[in-house]
Amino acid sequence: MYNQIIQWSVFVLSLISLLIILKKSSLIGDCLYVYLITVFFSSFIPVILIEQHYYEHPVRFLSQYFSSAVLFDYLAFPTLNVLFNLTTKRSKLVGVLAQAVLYSALMTTVEFILERYTELIKYYSWTWMHSFVTLIAFFLFVRLLMSLIRTADERERSRGVG
Fold it and tell me: CA torsion 97→98→103→106, rounded to 10°?
């Protein structure tokens, strides 16, 4: 029962947060790009890690349909990545790196607690350090990808195309 309460709480909180972010943001296109890029990579990276027995999700939201943590992979993490990209849009490199570390540290702490005290995640050859480093790398990867997309878009607009 405790696991379901956590999952439903994450579902509601993530959905409300995403809707507020989208409603308040003047960069809805950017938000949707980040969300979809994150979902795209979350569609196969966690599945590969689970199939390789690095970790598993014994109790899952919609477990009859997904072997991964669909709630995290398709809602919570993409929402946090959208927030990260919005809060770092005008940041310099040091600010982007600091926020990537901060977001990752908070997420890793929550994951570590969930791994210890719930059945939502179970590590095998995976550790909190793997999560921490992977999250930082992923936040930075999507941020870099969005910078490249914005730059290409600005070039196209300045040429009068699109």
Answer: 140
In terms of pTM, does the model score above 0.85? yes
Distance CA 122, CA 142 (A): 26
Complete DSSP assignment for 94-148: HHHHHHHHHHHHHHHHHHHHHHHHSSS-EESS--HHHHHHHHHHHHHHHHHHHHH
- Residue 55's SS3 state is strand
- Collapsing DSSP to helix, strand or coil, 5 comes out as helix
Q: Mind listing the pLDDT tens digit of every residue in the chain (162 residues)?
A: 788 899 999 999 999 999 999 888 888 889 999 999 999 999 889 989 999 999 999 998 888 887 778 899 999 999 999 999 999 989 999 999 999 999 999 999 999 999 999 999 999 999 999 999 999 999 999 999 999 998 998 888 888 755
